[in-house]
Amino acid sequence: MTTTIDPSDLESFSAHLRSSKRILALCGAGLSAASGLPTFRGAGGLWRSYEAVQLATPQAFRQNLVLVWQFYSYRRHMALQAKPNPAHYALAEFGRRKKGFLTLTQNVDGLSPRAGHPESNILYLHGSLFDIRCMNCDYKESNNFTDPIVPALALPKGAAQPRPLGTATSGEAATESLSRAMGGAHGELDISDDRVEMPEINVKDLPQCPKCGDGLLRPGVVWFNEMLPEDVLATVDCFIEESSKIDLIMVIGTSAQVWPAAGYVDEAREKGARVAVINMDREDIPGGLNKGDWFFQGDASVIVPALLKEEIGDVKHLMLEQE
After folding, report:
1. How far is the CA of 158 from the CAs of 133, 176, 191, 261, in angstroms?
2. Of 26, 38, 165, 272, which is the most exposed, with the fewest CB atoms less than 10 Å away?
3. Selection from 110, 113, 108 nearest residue 126 by Cα
4. Exposed, middle or buried by CB within 10 Å (0-12, 13-18, 19+), for 141?
């Protein structure tokens, strides 16, 4: 699908953006799809013989520490091969320039911080692959991009790298492009394929806590059956409640139909916000569109920089500066 933006919609959005003082952005997997990163929820979403959700629970971690860390080490590695796309850079620059702007992302891929998004105005609802914390004490670490995180978790040499594709605008397409990349001479080294023998790893060689000395580190993501981070929820609630008016909420690459994201759209609307939805699927519109809202259909990596261009300039120059 070719992404095009209606000029009149772009003009009216830009005019509203100029006058907006309080803006919230909700981001989901669609933000990162063009970076060529598989979501493990599209076609071919199995990791070895497991659904990703089977490995993303506290119970799974307790039952098989090594396997779960191999899964997350693989995900960390693949995320680091992907690169932030223009939408990540556009939101990061907007965050540096616009007071009263907050981004809440459901993504754990680490692409936003790698694009330079200011820590002061981005929150991670589901944590991050690159955060780690101790199971035994209060040790935490953010943005640990060491790959592999410990030598024992190194992936086999020659593992394929995902190539960002402008056409890979969904988790399914990104997964397919990754599968094609791994289908060549190095396909036998893909440990996500259950036909490939996994290296044996001793638990003592998994990431250990540098503070207490006897605690095992775990990925800093929110697993199924775990509570969302209270500090993140409290910060978003405060951002919405402390202002008498929310001017705009941007819903980027997510249906925002599951709590708490769905609730934030409703709360922002109650405070006067207009809603801008950026998504590939017209069915993924949280609560429908009201008069004065916008729906921009297509690739977020194309649409978001275009929507913010008047405020931040040409994102291509920003990307070159970051590199």
Report:
1. 30, 19, 12, 39
2. 272
3. 108
4. middle
**118, 147, 213, 305 from 7: Cα distances, Å:** 30, 44, 59, 15
pLDDT over 90 at 301, yes or no: yes
Tokens at residue 282, please?
């017209």
SS3 content of the chain, % helix, strand, coil (to 5): 40, 15, 45
In the residue annotation, 126 being an active-site residue is answered as yes
Q: From the DSSP assignment, how many helices (H) and strands (E) are in the chain?
A: 11, 11
Q: What is the CA radius of gyration of the chain?
A: 20
- For tokens 């949280």, what's the residue? 286
Single out the catalytic residue among 16, 126, 186, 317: 126
Q: Name the band, by pLDDT with cuts 50, 70 and 90, for residue 197.
A: confident
Helical packing angle, 86-97 and 315-322, nearest 10°: 90
Tokens of 295: 């729906």
Q: Tens digit of pLDDT for each residue in 127-166?
A: 999 999 999 999 999 999 999 999 999 977 654 445 454 5
Residue 104 in tokens: 């809440």
Judged on CB neighbours under 10 Å (0-12, 13-18, 19+), 210 is exposed
